[in-house]
Write a structure and sequence with these properties.
Helix content: 10-25%
Structural class: mainly beta
Oligomer: single chain
Order of helices and strands: HHEEEEEEEEEEE
Number of strands: 11
Length: 165
């Protein structure tokens, strides 16, 4: 009888195991559209941890790129520098992280295809505890990418400034 109870409890615990799509919610993923021949792009989204435990986004994968890394952009004096994030990005329980132009983002390097505006592509996010989730991203022109950064009331506009002639 004790063996039966143990097996039943084990089954209940295993069937209650949550995966990334159960724990996290995601905004629409936006990829920066490319022109023919471009070999890099970036993907942006907001990730919310609805779970009771902190987790970490440790990597990302995409068939459209030879290499995918989580990057950050930081000011180094007067120069903006982009660097790979070592160890991933912690997403605290009940908190959100925004991957957006000018900050954290998913860097797509060695693109294997062009990413015209409107095209859709799968990106897999890998979490340390919750595992993987594959999301469909839409390529957008830079001026169409709107992500709200923490501490900002409005979205960023990434159009080129007009110059007088």
């Amino acid at each position: 009888m004790l063996k039966f109870v143990f097996l039943a409890l084990t089954f209940i615990l295993m069937s209650g195991t949550a995966n990334a799509s159960d724990i996290f919610s995601f905004s629409d993923i936006q990829i920066r559209a490319t022109v023919p021949g471009m070999k890099t792009s970036a993907a942006y989204l907001e990730i919310t941890n609805n779970g009771a435990l902190d987790d970490r986004l440790i990597s990302s994968q995409a068939a459209i790129a030879q290499r995918v890394e989580i990057h950050t952009m930081e000011m180094d004096g007067e120069v903006m520098r982009m660097r790979a994030v070592d160890g991933g990005v912690v997403i605290a329980a009940g908190d959100s992280v925004t991957l957006a132009p000018g900050g954290l983002h998913i860097m797509l390097m060695g693109l294997t295809t062009d990413l015209p505006a409107g095209s859709q592509h799968e990106i897999t996010l890998v979490f340390e505890k919750a595992g993987q989730v594959t999301l469909t991203a839409t390529a957008k022109l830079p001026a169409e990418i709107k992500m709200t950064m923490p501490g900002h009331e409005a979205s960023h506009d990434h159009t080129m400034p007009k110059t007088s002639q």
